[in-house]
Batch of 4 targets.
Target 1
Amino acid sequence: MKKIGLVIKNDIKAQKRAEEIKTKLGKKCIVIDVNTSNKAQISDDLFSIVVLGGDGTFLSAARFIGDCDIPLMGIKFGEVGFLAETLEDKLFHALDALFNGDYRIGKRERLTITIKRENKVKTCVDVLNDAVINKSAISRLASCAVYIDSKYITTYRADGLIIATPTGSTAYSLAAGGPVIHPDVPGIILTPICPFTLTNRPLIIPDSASVEIKLEGNPSDILMTFDGQEGIAIDSKDRIIIKKSINPIKMISLNDQNYFNILKARLMWSGGKA
């Protein structure tokens, strides 16, 4: 029996629609709790996971599956939904298409963020959207020295630095003045947050490159966050290494939908429909 997993936002409307799905599909669906580390929930008879929620819920699901080879499909419940394939009112149309095989599977690249101190790995995390170096509200500017393939490029003096994937180009990076990159275009985006020097602009580099970042000076109260889901304190003793992950995320797209429809709707461009 083909089964789907359901990841459900902690939201009354999403929970209500999930009950309708469970009533309709019965044993063809199971609820997955992404707040645990129990990967046994991803059983061999699951062929996809449907996420009822916004981008935050989708990112939680992506982090939960890790390197498991199972595709995700997002249904928008919430304010933000660049990662959602379709909207709540088309939920059952999307489920019918899923079970009928009327869909495509695309890959979204992730980045592996490794933080080392004295050549020991402090943490290693895969991100789908971005990793962000942030200073606290009362801290001085963060000085982030950037090396690409071991060659020094520049030092960003800014409120922070965003390292984003093309998928994450429509998230925090976009709000900070970064470009919109189609998810099929390979690359890594470096976007400074409120840079001290106006000539420090967003930079797009090949995703085959290795990026290393070091904090200069004596920084305090600096945090690195991963997909907005968790964070870790960093300082000048740490080396931050960013590379393309070997574990991309598979995302389901409906055959009657495309990326530009979603982009126009979410950014409310002329001709865009919600």
Target 2
Amino acid sequence: MSVRTLVVDDEAPARRRIRRLLAAEDGVTVIGECGDGASAVSLIETMRPDLVFLDIQMPERDGFEVVKAIPPAKLPAILFVTAYDQYALRAFDVHAVDYLLKPFTADRFRTALTRARARIARRAEDPGLATLATTLRSRPVYLSRLPVRTGGRTVFVEMGAVDWLEAADNYVRLHVRQREYLVRETLGSLEARLDPDRFVRIHRSAIVGIDRVAETRATSHGDAEVLLRDGTKLTASRTWREGLQQVLAFHFRK
């Protein structure tokens, strides 16, 4: 029986290379490919592949969030593909079928595929991956890095380095240590993925890093002026001012 395979990676060259390597293997059928986590969830649910090559850092949803979104009983065999996240590698070494660390050789690829075939052939539930999925469902997984396309390349912005985020229509402008990056996402959708212990909404168009706040000053209109450590001045509107003060009081009391 042919192994029905889905390839998920936000870089087209990476997808092409995996497809080329799979084309040299007997008994494997690539049933589709996609470049973001949201599409991956949709395709896994509708196409029910036996095996998924799943990148970690992607737009919309990363590899963790894809696993979290699929019920454990419906999870296919997963081969994670990554270039950087050492914490993830340790987790995948325990829970996943295998992982491929970019750049990987054809021999390493074949070894991972052999392990996946064996897992699929046993037709047994993957207890490790099911455990990972259950764990992810039981606790929030906040965004740690955000892929940003700029000048024909992709930059992975560490969220811990972000000073503040600004709404710009259907985009978000990240202010990162005197640099700016534009992400095609709404501020509201991005806010839902941010760690509330690190970021707080101060305005309908602004979110700040809590530890970047140096000072707040009340204004005559019920708003507050927020001064960041780098000298940036922002406005906390009345809607979010009280919440900001509560967050700051709790944060700096710890």
Target 3
Amino acid sequence: MVEIEKLCFSYHQESPIFLNFSWSIVQGERWSVIGPSGCGKTTLLYLLAGLRLPTSGKINIDGAQLTGPRVSTGLILQDYGLLPWATAFDNISLGLKIHRLDSGKVTRITREWLSKLGIDAVSSHYPAELSGGQRQRVAIARTLALEPDLLLMDEPFASLDALTREELQNLTISLWESLFSTIILVTHNIE
């Protein structure tokens, strides 16, 4: 699924963050990348998402060299990345609308994910009206509604309380088992 070959990357003229880094990931595997803040974990996700390009080396996903963002890669950000002026329903349906699905299908898929993630009751609420756990569920639903084959998660549980964090970790595992997406999660928290 993912082949990283002799990847090198640095910001501007700084020391390299990655120097001849290689890594192979098989379809359906789950990986956690653990390291302290500032060691390049988020940069790795941005490279895998095609939002940054290597200085040298290459990244192949499904046999094709990555030259920019790809439709079937999902990225869940630490700060949720929700539009503050859009309801939970509208945030989840955003990607589906961008992909020009008909409105009936958008509504059906969005409602399915609201239900799967247990946030039906807050579908008309705005991000500022949601708890951290609810915001993270909306971000997860928005990404999974697009059925990505590669799911990248950047510190997705960092700002949550212990009970919500454990609940969402278990949810992520159950979703992986049902969707069989490849998941790469970066965190500084070993737990």
Target 4
Amino acid sequence: MNYNTYVLGREGYVSLNLVTAASTVEADKPAAHELLRAINFKQGRRYGDFDSSTDKVAAYGLAALVGGIAAKKLGLLALIAAGAAKFGKLILVAIAALGGWFAKWFKGRSAKQDPVS
């Protein structure tokens, strides 16, 4: 089992990946937490040393990324819509052709099964 944790800094992060058996992960977590507590960034480089006058702030937060607002700002939704418009006509033509084939097939079957009197 993998137990991944991260310690954030202002210019990067430290990743700790504890690889252990699933049956011993709860017993091994205290060792991982002890290692995490021992990590220290230099003064001014810690995540808590944020300086709003010099540090960049994203135009959107984590909630926006999850909610799709960031995707809208990045133009991903417009790209998807353009692709759907481009291939939508092709899909409609394929559906119409398939519908015509089914109609012809069902009419042909019913004509063969109906006895002529």
